[in-house]
């Protein structure tokens, strides 16, 4: 559904228009006018607030430009406690200077006033006002504002004018410390990596997270950089706190994904109380690291009828208020209030249901840069694309160049544009080298001096003969550990380790092509081969032979009409069609309550992960054996869902296990093909085991109750190992289900 707006009257603003159309204020029409002012994105269209055409969009912008800031602030498109909390960091005195302006006047001020004058009003701008003024700006105007406002992190040049930092993202398909360490060496060999060493873990088990934290911490300690930059394992913030409690001093900056409203945050198992408590504990050098992204709220079913831009801006308001809490905590601990808090906008990670094209990716990133900066935040970008979007490898370079003009604090950094664990496209080391050269940018001064000391760049910042050679960095690493062996021996050892890393599917970039900012040709070919392989996987279908090979297979399907509908419209894959729902109800009758565990298999975004030899069968065989050994009664059938997504599994669990009078845990293991692109053809196992009484309540089971094992294949996380880990996790979940009454658990989740 789209929004068509009739003619607007002279001098009419949004509130006048809504009053004229309905004779009174109408909250839904108000939401639609605000959304219609946005540049087009598929995510707003799905919510029902996108403009039907350019004429309606321009009319909405005209109405918005005439609307006073205090009227926008007085009419929030929806309200919750997060919205109220975000106002804690809002300066009412500064607000009074601008409250009477129209949004058009605020836009003109941001484009023409000097930077000091802009900084002087920022704390007085509420999140909804910031979102609305951004709606009025062209891409060129967003670049202009972004390129004039900067918020460097305390005691550094990260986020300052003329600087482009990098979050090294040393992800491993197996959480192997060697993979992680070598990607850090690799980035530093290109003089890249000055903001944070940040790894996305495959497993969020505290022991695994602790091992990855230790690997990152070791590198910083060895090179004497612990006061220069932090490290981070991007597990849930509760897990990071648990690791710190077990191993004090080993964690760096703490990470958490944020939603734009309370309900969306509950999907991340996040509450206001929890985040306030974590912020209060960050009294040291490093504070908090947040990730956001337009569309996450809507795709999790919590849009409140409001467009993506409003939600994204409110995430920054949440971050701004938490940043203030960190400053208070530092002051209370006797330290200078200098909160090291930054935000990474992960634009493009969700998929085409949010937006599809490279132009939309640039627009989204520009909006988010400006909204972040107008909140006084240091904001970086993950300029990324999934393989099912209409954004190619080459498009990403074009996008990066458009965005560099807006002054993001940092970008991601990997050996190639393909993440070997997350299976998405992002920024490579070489992209950083190219952008720095083209726009005259550099990294934080302390790390620039470090790279010069390593000898990978010279005094003028030009590449040396050691540029792009991670073996050279390894030699320095060993020397700092006191290793006195000859360099030739250390380099030979480095080659052996690098070969092991590559064998696990993690590329390492050594040297370069014709220019220092181009990939070595053979690695470029490998990158493009993986890209083409991913496109094949994306449009594959799960074969009949695979389904028939599963003992007791029961075929189900979702409401997706076909593969294209499934890929472009994810909600269609989140619920069973009528016939399948009836089939599961009949299955429940046949079971008669005999089973407390059910296996579900869905094709996902790469069905080949379930069809490749040595992938699915070893997992299922080991899973059944281990579950039985632990006392679980596993249903003999395997439910095979065509075009299934994670929430389709929750529906199966509710239909099979829901019983309001039964407090015993019931387990669902949902196997789904992952995003293609890594070359591993990997799948994931989603593990859920609440009480039957919790399954019974509509909507009570969602992602916050589920644990994940990702990257399962014969070349990454071994299927047999994944199955044993799944049983261990299910035992933990079952223990929680037995010890926490459902009502108490729900109250805790609500905050």
TrEMBL record:
One of its GO terms (biological process) is ethanolamine catabolic process. One of its GO terms (cellular component) is cytosol. Coiled coil: none annotated. The keyword Kinase does not apply. The keyword Lyase applies. Gene3D superfamilies: Aldolase class I, Ethanolamine ammonia-lyase light chain (EutC), lyase. One of its GO terms (molecular function) is ethanolamine ammonia-lyase activity. InterPro entries: Aldolase_TIM, EutB, EutB_dom_2_sf, EutC, EutC_C. It comes from the Bacteria. This is Ethanolamine ammonia-lyase subunit EutB. Keywords: Lyase.
